[in-house]
Amino acid sequence: MEEITLDKNEKHIATRNLLEHSLLIVWKVDEYNLGIPIIDEQHRGIVTTINSLHYGMQNKHARDVLAPVVDMVTEYTRLHFILEEEFLAKYEFPTIKQHRQLHFELTTELSKVGKDSLWHQDPYEFLEFLKKWWVDHICEEDRKFHDHLLKILHDKQ
After folding, report:
1. Rounded distance, CA 56 to CA 49, Å?
2. pLDDT per residue over 127-138, tens digit each?
3. Domains in the chain, number
4. How far apart are CA 8 and CA 33, in angstroms?
5. Does 22 fall in a domain?
6. Verdict on whether the full-model pTM lies above 0.85
């Protein structure tokens, strides 16, 4: 059998591809950062948790990580929403009531899906919920707040 040799750059690319294989969501600074360091950091924490569950599922440890992930996401979300709503109020986000309602609905659904996933010992529904939450809420709804902040900063100049 012929040995395959890779140059340094090819090895780096191969290693990076192997390592990224276990991530469901790869953090994209330009797309995901809102420009509020604590909120960006918490969002990265949510992505880390989603990726941890995904990694566990890929490596046949889903049942071992499901309960800790459900607990962690539930508590983390509660704290994150409190902080995020403080920013929304501080910077007079015009649709703050609707955003708070979305937070309430997400928290309710998170609780239901988490309990169902634990009851059935099935992490797939929970992972799909988390992925949809990331795409719909954080990448779309929270982006509106980012745009509002940019307008405020621009108007002050």
Report:
1. 11
2. 999 998 888 887
3. 1
4. 31
5. no
6. no
